[in-house]
Amino acid sequence: MRLALLLLLVTVNCELDIKLPADILSDLVERPEGNSFSYNLAEGEEGEEEEPYEYEINYDWKIDQFQEINSTLGKCGKEIPQLDVSKMKAPHQIRLSYTGKATEMAITWTTNGVTEHEQVNYGPVETDLNYTSTSISHQYKWRYDQEAGDWYYTSGFIHEALMINLIPGMIHYYQIESNGMKSDIIKFVAAPAEGSNTPVSFLHVGDVGTFGTSVMVTNDMMKRMKEKQFHGMIHCGDISYANKYDGERPEDKNNKTFAEQKVWDTWGQMVEPVGSKMAYMAVPGNHELDIWDSTNENGTIYAKRFIMPGNERYFSFSVGMVHFVAVSTDESIDAESTQGQWFKNVLTEVNKNRDKWPWLVVFQHRPIYNSNKNHGNWTGTNNYTNPDGRKPHHLGWPDNFEKLILENKVNFVLAGHVHHYERSWPVKNREDVLLSYDNVDRPVHITCGHAGKSLYRKMWDFPDRNTYDEEAPLFSAARDNANWGHCELDFVDTKTAKHRMYLMGSDEPKEEITITRSAGTRTTFSAVLLVASFVIFLKL
To answer: In whole angstroms, what separates CA 408 from the centre of its chain?
Structure first.
């Protein structure tokens, strides 16, 4: 629905160059409940001049410069200082995302005020940004304090716009005009056209947060972006950790902690050097979606801050020769569930067109193949009881899920949740394992949950024991619970992909694996036609 409205706005602006008057804009802004609704005045309006506010993230810091990181124990330490969005006048927290069309790119940013002039200018020539897209803007409030008679947190104005008429696979530039200020001119590459054989490269991470280790891993990816062109980022859930963390969250009068929304702002600014230059595609994890682990955010804040295709919890999109499918592991995926039926339909349709999309990638939060004892393999059941006395149980994990990914020749399953790194051999039904990455006919599962949060080195219930058994299970090709890092996937051509894993602070990959796809995963129309012709020839 939001993407449809964004498309309407950008179409009006591109064709007629109409500026929205203030009375129309006021209807587009989602106003919080209550009488208190204030924001800083934009430049050019009456009001007191504000003192300059500067917020800096020290990407080049080392471990000993951040607070309480303990690499020996795998502890991520303290969160970095939080951004005060009420003082950030300029466009910030800028982030791109794919819509499912190679000619489009969605964009979101935040400011502390809003005017009638909120837009992004863009085009393929840096000196001639001849397209304009007007944004829609919304704001939310969080946690009303009855005693104080006010809200604990008021978000900045979150702006969303849609850039259309992009040239697939080509470099484009954009500049945001918002709240009386302009952003820098920023460069990105549009998605290659569906079915093109253009090589495609993605970063992927999970379980990030806003810790010193999160900053260091982000800095590693920023360095990699200077070395090569990436088309996008896959974030496999547990994004900001705005929920409770180590007791460092505000409490209400009943001593119950609640999510600290400033952490979302801090995370959004931390990843801006990545997300402003490529599509940042995220799927919610338990700390965004689950009622208990999200401290009652229940997916609402994730939905307000991200623009993803579909219903934003599970969705699909293509980038050149790769089709990506995101699923929500905190919802059922059995044959009778809404997600399960959707998942089957999407995979079936993609598998009919493997000439166009030879590579099929599923990404999610919780892994179904995992050898770390702190979480085990996802079976749909959480280990706690909700306040209403109900124990969450999500059907279809892993049985129906694995059945569908095997039937439809999924190549990779990317996950997070478990705070370690693990790469499987090509595997199906747990015991049927190929000890080679050549001519692969089944999924490779990669968990990249070591991108910031404390690592799962020791067992929760037995702190003196390692989370790994001495001997890894047959499906596990490599694993690491002692280091933070990030992962990358390159789709080189229709047959070859490369996977790399970088340890935090390293300029060289710890792992670089080449995977070749089985020809059997690509049943083409031309091949079927050839067989049919041969049968007819024999009959004649």
So the answer is: 24
